[in-house]
Amino acid sequence: MIARIWAGESPLWLLLLPLSWLYGLVSGGIRLLYRLGLKRAWRAPVPVVVVGNLTAGGNGKTPVVIWLVEQLQKRGIRPGVVSRGYGGKAARYPLLLNPQTTAEEAGDEPVLIYQRTGAPVAVSPARSEAVRALLAEHAVQIIITDDGLQHYALARDKEIVVIDGVRRFGNGWWLPAGPMRERASRLKTVDAVIVNGGVAKPSEIAMLLRPGRAVNLLTGERREISQLPSLVAMAGIGHPPRFFTTLEQCGARLEKRIPLADHQPLTPEQVKAFTVPGQTLIMTEKDAVKCRAFAQPHWWYLPVDAELSGEQPEQLLNELIALVH
Fold it and tell me: Which of 33, 203, 246, 303 has the fewest Cβ atoms surrounding its Cβ within 10 A?
């Protein structure tokens, strides 16, 4: 239902417009206070790059963060990552991740980034505290923030926005009548726009999420998706249908699709009940970090990598490297 409302396909969005106007008034007022200097943003002693979005829901932001970190590492730069840690409930903040940190503590996306890149990662609702914690323990040269475009309390040197190229901006209204955290005009002030799927405009960077081979949660064995029998797919991401479509494009024949809420906590009993004997469970890598501690032999996940095309990605990386040097 919410997808139909945000797409403008249901007239219910009209009933929510007063709340959207209030949301826009409050969010715009906060940004204005920082622009006028009435509220001051904290500036880190190293460059800060924000990777965020204008809409609620999954746009492919975390794969972009992973891509940036890996590309900078290949070029000899030491990046660190900060996140709000949505969905995590740490005993104290800021929390510096280590190999034993769970998704229940830090949130699924920070754990995924840490496991995939090996880069230092810190989480805190106050991102400036996470940055300070990173700098106190690691010699990072640049900070990448996973989300936080609207977190103006942290000054930034570059802003990168990730857009779902298929859904774009729906009906264009602020939450809750539409999907927008800020209006589309905000794109005029950011440094780069990355479009996940769909058709990118000339000024935008085109991106695809390239799936790899499925990975068994217990053994690490890798197989082609088409080789896995009797598949049941689950996805606790911002837009689960994208994951199901990706699986089918890889040759999967899905017996069942289980869409879950983004960042939804998962229990062993809940996940085990998704399949019956003889079925295979396939999930996103973000879900896998929450299920690894109680994984079963027939559970697999599908890793995806951001693939950016054209000359613009290299130009963007050169701009980030120039901030460091």
Answer: 203
Encode pLDDT of 120-133 as tens digits: 999 999 999 999 99
Residue 116 sits at φ, ψ, to 5 deg, of -75, -35
In this predicted structure, the answer to whether residue 58 has a pLDDT above a threshold of 80 is no
- The phi-psi region of residue 310 (left if phi > 0; otherwise alpha if psi is between -120 and 50; otherwise beta) is left
Determine the Cα–Cα distance for residues 130 and 83; give it in Å rounded to an integer. 8
Which of 70-74, 196-200, 256-260 is the least confident region?
196-200
pLDDT band for position 1 (cuts 50, 70, 90) = low
- List strands edge to edge, sheet with 299-302: 222-223, 214-216, 299-302, 280-284, 231-235, 254-259
> Which amino acid, 16?
L
Distance CA 289, CA 295 (A): 10
- Residues 222 and 121: their CA atoms lie apart, in Å, by 27
Residue 47 Ramachandran class (φ > 0 left, ψ -120 to 50 alpha, else beta): beta
Give domain 2-208+307-324's CATH architecture.
3-Layer(aba) Sandwich (3.40)
Q: How many CB atoms lie within 10 A of CB 246?
A: 19
Of 291, 283, 260, 276, the closest CA to residue 103 belongs to 291
Checking if the pLDDT of 165 tops 80, the result is yes
Tokens 């991106």 locate to 207
The residue ranges of every structural domain in the chain are 2-208+307-324, 213-302
pTM, 2 dp: 0.93
Q: For the chain, first and last CA: distance in Å?
A: 49
User: Model confidence over 178-200: pLDDT tens digits?
Assistant: 999 999 999 999 999 999 998 89
